[in-house]
Design a protein that fits this description.
28% helix, 57 residues
Length: 57
């Protein structure tokens, strides 16, 4: 049995103003990173930002 690894695209977009956002949302990457650094779990972040899926977090 061979393990097959497929590359997944990173769900990020850069706006004209240079803000990096989670693709399909208006949530800046910086907001997600800051919440994580403050101790929030991925599940808590996804709950706090309903436009984000757990996979995006």
């Amino acid at each position: 049995m061979t393990l097959r690894v497929e590359q997944q695209p990173v769900p990020l977009v850069v706006t004209a103003e240079g803000v990096v956002r989670i693709e399909g949302t208006r949530v800046p990457l910086e907001t997600v990173v800051r919440a994580f650094h403050l101790g929030a779990t991925p599940e808590e972040i996804a709950q706090d930002y309903p436009s984000l899926t757990l996979a995006q977090v």
